[in-house]
Amino acid sequence: MLVYAVTTLFAFAGLAAVFAIAAAWLTALPQIRALRRDLEACEHRLLVTARIFETVTTCDDGKIVRLPVRARMMPLQALRDAA
User: Fold this and answer.
1) Which of these, 34, 36, 32, 12, lies nearest to 24 by C-alpha position?
2) I need a surface site. Which of 10, 21, 23, 70 has the fewest CB within 10 A?
């Protein structure tokens, strides 16, 4: 009997989540459409581009990785040792 109660609880929780997501989408979509329409009507737009030159990783003790990262060929001896 407990299995049916837990299953029913999860089913109702899932349905409530689906309805909450649907309500959020129905609220947000008209606002998104209005924002896009306002952006298309705006005359004062500026094109901005960016280029990433390097990135700092959080692992490997803050090692700086220069971009673009290219694969390096391994020496044949190292491949033989690994086999």
Assistant:
1) 32
2) 70
